[in-house]
Design brief:
CATH superfamily of chain A: Histidine kinase-like ATPase, C-terminal domain
Order of helices and strands of chain B: HHHHEEEHHEEEEEEHHHE
Largest sheet of chain B: 5 strands, antiparallel
Helix content of chain B: 40-55%
Strand content of chain B: 15-25%
Largest sheet of chain A: 6 strands, antiparallel
Oligomer: heterotrimer
Shape of chain B: elongated
Chains: A alpha+beta (about 140), B alpha+beta (about 325), C alpha/beta (about 110)
Shape of chain A: globular
């Protein structure tokens, strides 16, 4: 699902304060614009970055958002990777269920993030942290 | 999308030229199409923005920016709508499963009223929701004994139904109609206590009738007392037997009592759905039931049950909020 | 139809005042309120039901669950201020043998 060749060097934003979420959003939007996503798609990508960054800010003490351009045969896209050393997600399947979002807890926004993007991959270990990769193609 | 964009632009332009109800109506029909095609709110705003840009090429960038702002904040709105739609699909799946489960339950818990020459038996059990929280189980032993268990499971719906199946299989394994009520209640209590959670319990009235000796032996686990009519005294007696609900504590002893039935005596076993008038006022529900039973005393046990239900159902004070079960043993 | 619970600490006794009707719809509210109560060994819990006019079987289940929980923690539970209708309910279900309950009249006599 998640693959492709990395074109440019990646940009990384460390998420420590709430304002770092804004930095990550800005970076993501710029990249999305350069790649050629339309306004609606830019808004969706930014919202997805926002959700991932918020999860790091609220539930993990440290983490980062990595944004990179990806390319496959005749298609371009964006990949966002959120890496944290937080508590990890105990039950990924449950977090991905609709209706869970009302809980407002860790991972509550993930089903929405998946809807906004074309692909999503979660690796998580309780007590160690979480890596979430999402991508979207033009 | 291109096609929709063109259609929307035309509908919007028509409206801007002429603000008629007809043009609004066309707009609403169009949005119906968009919803069907799963177009999200932020996309609708984007379509609108492009249409406005084309109709008014000189529009200021401030107004266009405001649309971008709206697109941005409507992304979340769109997510909520999509989640809602997906939950609706899931709900429909659950509804179908529930219907299947209801069919299985009613098949599983089907009760046949035994035919015994010396005893007239009647029963009505009506669920308030899809699944019945009341259950009546008969055992009939080669015309020597007839037993009945009248059960009410706390709570409603699926948990109650699962618990009910457990009660049914517990009773099935006891197999013989001549078991003592106290033994039956003790065994069932142990089964239920082990398997259900803390807030779950079952109330049960259990009675065994010795057909040759005309002796009715009964015990109760937290169940609404049965009512006994003695025709010689022309009086009603409550068959009080205080025993703890099934499933609350592991080792509970249940007492049993005996009465001798004479010609025209009857025993009325009910669940609390029958006596539970929430706005009861001065009316004692048990007295209402006794009076009713007297009115129908010349009918068969089955007719008595049916008439009582028909009467209570139409009573204004009697807000049927629970499953309703009446069983009559009439000599 | 609603249920309202308020807890007050009174020395060694945790007093809960419950008001309203406890049925299938309000029972979850009561359950959450009771679950939140801090149970400390050696302390008593007393629930005042003088303003409860109706309990259905689901509501009864909440009290049974709460009774089991506090008993596991070696804490005494007392229900006070029960109307005659509620006393009857606890008697029929055999719960009056298990839990300590007091009627409205008994409370008034003491005062």
């Amino acid at each position: 699902m998640v693959g492709g060749i990395i074109l440019n060097s990646k940009s990384t934003v460390e998420i420590i304060t709430e304002w770092d979420i804004v930095v990550a959003r800005q970076l993501g939007r710029n990249e999305a614009k350069i790649i050629g996503f339309g306004t609606v798609e830019q808004a969706r990508i930014t919202t997805a970055i926002s959700e991932l960054a918020r999860n790091i800010y609220l539930y993990a003490s440290a983490g980062e958002i990595v944004i990179e351009r990806i390319e496959e045969v005749e298609k371009y896209g964006i990949r966002i990777t959120a890496i944290d050393k937080g508590p990890g997600i105990d039950n990924v399947r449950k977090v991905m269920e609709d209706g869970y979002s009302t809980s407002g807890g860790l991972g509550a926004g993930l089903p929405g993030v998946k809807r906004l993007m074309d692909g999503m991959e979660i690796q998580t270990t309780v007590g160690k942290g979480t890596i979430i990769k999402i991508e979207k193609w033009i | 999308m291109k096609e929709l964009q063109i259609q929307y632009k035309k509908i919007l332009a028509d409206y801007l030229k002429n603000q008629t109800e007809r043009n609004l109506y066309i707009g609403q029909n169009f949005i119906r199409q968009l919803i069907q095609k799963k177009v999200t709110p932020e996309e609708v705003i984007s379509i609108h923005k492009h249409a406005v840009e084309q109709i008014y090429p000189d529009i200021t960038s401030e107004i266009l920016n405001s649309f971008d702002f709206l697109i941005e904040i409507m992304v979340h709105f769109g997510l909520t709508v999509q989640e809602h739609q997906s939950l609706l699909v899931q709900q429909e799946e659950l509804r179908i499963e529930m219907n299947v489960a209801t069919k299985i339950q009613s098949m599983l818990l089907k009760t046949a009223i035994p035919k015994v020459n010396e005893l007239d038996i009647g029963m009505v059990s009506i669920p308030i929701r899809k699944m019945n929280g009341d259950y009546v189980h008969f055992l009939n032993d080669e015309q020597h004994y007839v037993s009945v268990a009248v059960t009410d499971v706390v709570g409603k719906g699926v948990p109650a139904a699962l618990c009910m199946s457990m009660v049914k299989y517990g009773l099935d394994t006891l197999e013989y109609a001549n078991n003592n009520p106290s033994y039956v209640l003790e065994v069932l209590n142990r089964i239920i206590e082990k398997s259900v959670d803390d807030s779950m319990f079952v109330s049960m009235f259990y009675g065994t009738y010795d057909i040759k000796g005309n002796i009715f032996t009964y015990g109760s686990a937290g169940h609404e007392p049965a009512i006994y009519y003695n025709s010689r005294d022309q009086k009603f007696y409550d068959l009080e037997s205080r025993g703890l609900l099934l499933g609350v504590m592991s080792e509970v002893k249940y007492r049993q009592y005996k009465i001798h039935l004479e010609e025209n005596d009857f025993i009325l076993m009910i669940t609390d759905g029958v006596t539970d008038f929430r706005k009861q006022g001065d009316l004692d529900p048990r007295n209402v039931i006794k009076e009713l039973a007297l009115n129908y005393i010349n009918l068969s046990a089955q007719e008595m049950c049916e008439r009582m239900y028909a009467y209570l159902k139409d009573l204004t004070d009697f807000n049927l909020e629970d499953d309703f079960t009446v069983v009559i043993f009439k000599k | 139809m609603n249920v309202n619970v308020q807890f007050r600490e009174d020395g060694n006794v945790m007093r809960g005042y419950i008001e309203g009707e406890i049925d299938t719809f309000t029972a979850p509210v009561l359950r959450d309120e009771l679950e939140a109560v801090q149970i400390v060994e050696g302390r008593r819990v007393e629930l005042d039901l003088s303003k409860v006019n109706y309990i259905d079987s689901t509501g009864l289940g909440i009290f049974v669950a709460f009774y089991k929980k506090v008993t596991r923690e070696n804490v005494q539970l007392r229900l006070v201020g029960l109307s005659s209708r509620l006393v009857r309910l606890f008697e029929i279900t055999g719960l009056s043998e298990l839990m300590s309950i007091e009627t409205d009249a008994e409370v008034e006599l003491k005062q």
